[in-house]
Specification:
Length: 151
């Protein structure tokens, strides 16, 4: 039997609070946030609150352009980690380690619209020869309204 390992998560929902940019002791930018996702099925009013963490340029991008209530789509990997709380007890956390982030709201609906042409280019599109390559700005492709769509 082949060794098959796959850990991909795609979430679409709304931020439950304003993301806050923090810096680790090693000066690495990080933000943790929660995404509210409506559950499908019999209980359509149920909502899951999924914890996410983003690092470096992704963290900066999220804290700059997303606010509480913003629609967001994140792609990443599920991870489980343990930590010791202030009382010395071992605690566990399950969260999505964000690889890519996407705008969902239209230009007029965004709480704080990104500058024209700004977008986070997912790591998968960056050169893998330079793992620390900075995020870039996408070409200036904007639609003023949905009437400009060709379909």
């Amino acid at each position: 039997m082949a060794n098959f390992n796959l850990n991909r998560v795609i979430l679409g929902g709304r931020l439950t609070a304003d993301p806050e940019l923090k810096t680790t002791q090693n000066q690495i930018m990080v933000t943790s946030f929660s995404v509210a996702v409506k559950r499908r099925g019999k209980d359509e009013n149920a909502t899951d609150f999924i914890d996410c963490v983003a690092w470096r340029e992704r963290a900066e991008f999220i804290t700059r352009y997303f606010r509480k209530g913003s629609s967001i789509c994140v792609e990443g990997a599920l991870q489980k980690r343990s930590y010791t709380d202030k009382q010395g007890a071992t605690r566990y956390a399950v969260e999505v380690n964000v690889d890519n982030v996407y705008f969902v709201d239209s230009k007029g609906e965004s709480a704080q619209a990104a500058p024209q042409g700004a977008a986070y280019i997912p790591e998968s599109y960056l050169s893998h020869d330079e793992p620390s390559a900075p995020a870039t700005v996408a070409p200036n492709w904007t639609l003023e309204d949905d009437d400009d769509l060709p379909f």
